[in-house]
Specification:
The structure holds 2 protein chains of 2 kinds. By secondary structure, chain A is of the alpha/beta class. Chain A has 5 helices and 8 strands; from the N terminus they run βββαββαααβαββ. Chain A has a single domain (2-195), classed as Rossmann fold (3-Layer(aba) Sandwich). In chain A, helix 2 runs parallel beside helix 4 and helix 3 (107-113) packs across helix 4. Chain A is globular, with a radius of gyration of 17 Å. Chain B is mainly alpha-helical. Chain B has one domain (2-220). Helices cover 85% and strands 0% of the residues of chain B. Classes of the chains: A alpha/beta, B mainly alpha.
């Protein structure tokens, strides 16, 4: 499997964010998008996720499921956690598991994998920022998708959480997955560097 | 299919929890209807003549009240991104969200109608007619209102814009809803004629609403 983009250009609000961008990542590879604030890291992730239309260029996932589009085979972990404060931890995860069409799987185990199994019935409103992030990460585990698009994945996580997440990314890569992460901090795994240009 | 039922169950569950919209709509409906006799005065004949129109206006405003959160809440917490990316067609997801909103916020209004009919001096037949027209007409309000909710999704404080966008679209529903209720009470037109048009309006909005909402959501993403 190979995720690649060619000659990508993104325009937002009449301003060119990036242009002529090429990248590629094969199965088991991680791509770390780095660059200063405003250089278009999040925009690139959203273009790959199909949430922004590129002004130019093409995206392709070779060797994926031919029936499905690239966004349908990807997980997007954005700044916002996609959690409902009124629902409990377990209800939040169970909803995404069912909505995203995950194969039958024990959602409790996914919560245990991110060390949230002690809080399954707590409403998500009472979670700390780090716990919310852990719960979003559990979503990536509960439904299997080959491509992970991560936007500052380790922000708000404590040291133990970061180590835990590095382990989960390693597992995902070992299964032949692809990780594309926008980050300021070192990811903690072997990753190819995609440097975005300066702002402006 | 299970994805859609998961979405419907989640939205209903949120609406019924603390801070959800289900009860707020009914309370608003109750307030508007209770205030009317004070404003109009204790003329029972006048009240029962105005009754269907008052109930319809109350239901229209009450359903607008909670509609602006239909997509905004999902947009703010990032859920909308995941819904757009998912394997479920966005049109169906929109229809499921509107259905959940109608079940949680529209249906309670219809259940409350008989009680409120008493306050407006409506007899059994009249109350039944109003409840029946609301049952046929409120889906049209929800599904056309959804278009406005989708257009206003990226705007902060889009609630007022929603009302401006949606109210003109709901005029036909209001006209035929009240006309059908009046026809059942006093004639001279038969109940069936305006009621069929009301049902047709609901069916049309059931078809157009999800497509228009999905198109404007896709366009409004950034």
């Amino acid at each position: 499997m190979r995720l690649s983009g060619q000659n990508l250009k993104c325009v937002r609000g009449g301003r060119e964010v990036f242009s002529g961008l090429d990248f590629s990542a094969a199965s088991g590879e991680a791509l770390a998008i780095t660059g200063p604030n405003g250089s278009g890291k999040t925009s690139l992730l959203r273009v790959i996720a199909g949430l922004l239309m590129p002004a130019e260029g093409t995206l392709a996932l070779e060797g994926g499921d031919a029936e499905l589009s690239l966004p349908e085979q990807a997980h997007y972990l954005g700044h916002r956690d996609a959690l409902k404060p009124a629902l409990s931890v377990l209800e939040n995860l169970a909803f995404w598991h069912e909505f995203l069409g995950g194969e039958p799987r024990d959602t409790g185990k996914c919560l245990a994998a991110v060390a949230l199994d002690h809080a399954t019935h707590l409403p998500a409103a009472y979670l700390s920022a780090g716990q919310r992030r852990r719960l979003s990460i559990a979503r990536l585990l509960s439904v299997r998708r080959p491509v992970w698009l991560l936007d500052e994945p380790t922000s708000a996580l404590d040291t133990a959480g970061q180590e835990l997440f590095v382990g989960l990314m390693r597992e995902h890569l070992a299964r032949g997955g692809i990780v594309v992460a926008a980050t300021h901090l070192p990811l903690g795994i072997e990753a190819r560097d995609l440097r975005m240009g300066g702002a402006g | 299919m299970s994805a859609l039922s998961a979405l419907i169950r989640r939205d209903i569950r949120i609406a019924l929890r603390v801070g959800g919209g289900a009860l707020i709509g009914v309370l608003f409906f109750l307030t508007v209807t209770v205030l009317m006799p004070f404003a109009v005065g204790p003329d029972l004949a006048l009240l029962s003549r105005l009754g269907p129109a008052i109930l319809w206006l109350g239901a229209l405003l009450a359903s607008l009240l909670t509609l602006d959160r239909l997509f905004t809440a999902d947009h703010e917490d990032g859920s909308l991104d995941l819904i757009v990316m998912s394997r479920t067609p966005l049109e169906l997801a929109c229809a499921a969200k509107a259905l959940a909103h109608w079940l949680a916020a529209g249906l309670p209004l219809i259940v409350a109608t008989p009680v409120l009919g008493l306050l407006l001096n409506l007899d059994g037949t009249a109350t039944l007619a109003v409840a029946l027209t609301l049952l046929a007409g409120t889906p049209a309000l929800t599904f056309t209102g959804m278009i406005g909710a989708a257009l206003a999704v990226t705007l902060h404080r889009g609630g007022l814009l929603l009302a401006v966008l949606v109210l003109p679209l709901s005029i036909p529903v209001l006209i035929f809803g009240v006309a059908a209720s009046q026809a059942a009470i006093s004639g001279p037109v038969s109940f069936g004629t305006p009621f069929s048009i009301l049902c047709a309006l609901s069916l049309i909005s059931l078809v157009i609403g999800p497509f228009a909402a999905a198109a404007s959501l896709r366009h409004g993403l950034d």
